[in-house]
Design brief:
By secondary structure, this protein is an alpha/beta fold. Helix content is 41%, strand content 18%. It is built from 8 helices and 11 strands. Strands 3-2-1-4-9-6-10 form a 7-stranded mixed sheet, sandwiched between helices. Strands 5-11-7-8 form a 4-stranded mixed sheet. β7 and β8 form a beta hairpin. α6 runs parallel beside α8 and α7 runs antiparallel to α8. The longest helix is centred in the last third of the chain and has 28 residues. It starts with a helix and ends in a 6-residue tail after the last helix.
Length: 295
């Protein structure tokens, strides 16, 4: 069917209008502003990543947030699962904990950063607190928030021995925070008078088995030893390898009530004291092989 004369006229008018538009007359289209960027680094976290991302979906809904994942060569379904939650995936070779996390922050578009580990979950109360912060801007002097972290060890929540509330500075303005350059136990540094504490908790599913715990303590003790040697540490081998671990166990298990966490608490603090011994034994080894043996 032929178009009516009126329709032909309108079509011509539309054609003239389109031809008259140039790039400088077109309205600029910007992406929706992102308030919060949830950033993670991952490697083979398929057992945890779904739980982690489920816990933050309400915070990034309606295009007001994004999920950034920097993955260092996962060989399981970590990337596939993260993509199913709409995460932006950036494959990168491993550069170290701090460098990897800072790389994820650099890729974020949000004003606020929520930095999580792949085995952490934001509980409901903490999610409400975070939503309140990002939707009702705080005073200008507040640039970061600590969130208590609750650690799950061998199937038990650890509540004593210095492992609770274990506050971590994880919510902060992108313009204000980066992870300090440390090989292990890296933290974001913001002046104390510019931070506040949130309620709720990060649920940390850290070590489901003793094998996981021992493997991580071995890795962390190596990184800790390397960092200490790089800083010029010199100490007493006997005191550091024997007395320091024993004192660590007594302090955390007895004075900080670690014994109230049952068998799991005993194994946790025993393992932590062994980690301390390994760290200083590795320092001794590094110095010994380099000709700088401590006394």
């Amino acid at each position: 069917m032929n178009a009516s004369p009126a329709n032909n006229s309108l079509a011509g008018l539309q054609f003239v209008c389109d031809e008259s538009l140039t790039a400088k007359h077109l309205p600029l289209i910007y992406p929706s502003p992102v308030t919060l960027s949830v950033v993670l680094i991952t490697n083979n976290e398929e057992a945890n990543i779904g739980r982690t991302l489920t816990s933050v979906m309400r915070l990034v809904a309606d295009d007001k947030g994004e999920i950034i994942v920097v993955d260092s060569g996962s060989t399981d379904r970590t990337v596939e699962i993260a993509q199913s939650f709409g995460a932006k995936i950036f494959p990168e070779e491993w550069k170290g904990y701090a460098a990897q996390k800072n790389s994820a922050i650099e890729k974020a578009r949000g004003e606020w950063i929520l930095s999580l580990d792949g085995d952490e979950e934001v509980d409901a109360e903490a999610a409400e607190q975070i939503a309140s912060v990002i939707h009702s801007p705080p005073a200008e002097t507040v640039r970061g928030y600590y969130i208590p972290r609750k650690n799950h060890f061998l199937g038990r929540w650890i509540r004593h021995g210095g492992f609770w509330p274990d506050p971590k500075l994880r919510l902060f303005l992108k313009s204000a925070g980066r992870f300090e350059d440390r090989a292990v136990h890296e933290d974001v540094k913001i002046a104390a008078n510019e931070t506040r504490q949130l309620r709720g908790a990060l649920l940390h599913y850290s070590y489901p088995t003793m094998s996981d715990y021992i493997r991580h303590m071995n890795d962390y003790s190596t990184l800790g030893a390397q960092m200490a040697v790089a800083k010029g540490y010199r100490g007493n081998a006997f005191a550091d390898i024997v007395l320091r671990p024993a004192a660590t166990f007594v302090y955390n298990y007895f004075f900080r009530l670690g014994f109230l966490d049952g068998h799991e608490g005993f194994l946790l603090h025993l393992g932590h004291s062994v980690y301390v011994a390994w760290k200083y034994a590795k320092i001794w080894e590094m110095l010994h092989t380099s000709g700088g043996t401590p006394s």
